[in-house]
Amino acid sequence: MPLTDLPLDQLRAYRAETSEPEDFDAFWEKTLAAAREAAEGSAAEYRPAPGPRLHTVDVLDVRFPGWGGQPVAAWLLLPRGAEGPLPAVVSYIGYGGGRGLPLEHLVHSAAGRAHLVVDSRGQGHDTPDPDPVPGTQYVGGFMTRGIDDPAHHYYRRLMTDCVRAVDAVRGHPAVDPDRVVVAGASQGGGLALAVAALAGDHVAGALVDVPFLCHHRRGSELAAFGPYPELADYLGRHKRVDPERVFRVLDYFDGVHFARRATAPALFSVALMDPVCPPSTVYAAYNAYAGEKDIRVWHYADHAGGGADQTAAQLDWLTARGHTPDGHPPKEG
Fold first, then answer.
1. CATH number of the domain to which 276 belongs
2. What is the pTM of this model?
């Protein structure tokens, strides 16, 4: 794969020119308040998960109230026999995927953390997305679903689910509510970034890996594969649609705007040969991020990023910040 974007020195200085909606904060305050009101009196439900028995991990099949109080599926993996309250990781899934099987998500519980794996409505098998605006024109995927109005856009619903996942896991007796970290790659990274802003001090850290949903306009112009080309396809087919109106709607869901509001410590990653999430879109969010931050740069990687090496870096980063079962970072020497 060739390099897909600007040279690294220019990426480090890159600042996105994005138009932030004047009512951005009010929009999200109203959205989350409505979701919590709709779920009033409803609590997350936890049941033992069927499937192959794991001897060191307990797996719970979860349903928690998300957008409109609608049930959202998740797995909660808990290290068996660990004494709580435990640090927790809430992870979100890449585009087109769902929570999958618990066997796919064993790293964090093996490291002694509680791990909530959140299904993506309409993408995973276990959480439907009753579309509130049937008939809205869109092209494949989810990027233009509800594109006529931010109130109807798909990512308003999904991002609300993701914030409500943090609300749910903080209430579980095995979890330390002050040590909840959000995480994800690609779409999951963009969702983790959004939640880091929207959940405020309920989030103690963020692992933002090759994030999607950042600087949509530039993504639509540069990305060769993945979800961003859905925007170019839509605008190419619907030539009477004003592109500025489309990007004004997407501004409510842009990671650059969330980054300016997120203050939890964060570890990002970027791949310089990424044809799905162009590096400048990642740096647009990273350079805007308001909290303590670091980034791992994978020079010769595509959208897979650092793979297991990035996971190892994330585990070290969490441990150094006391996101361990005993709450203490390792002693020097």
1. 3.40.50.1820
2. 0.96
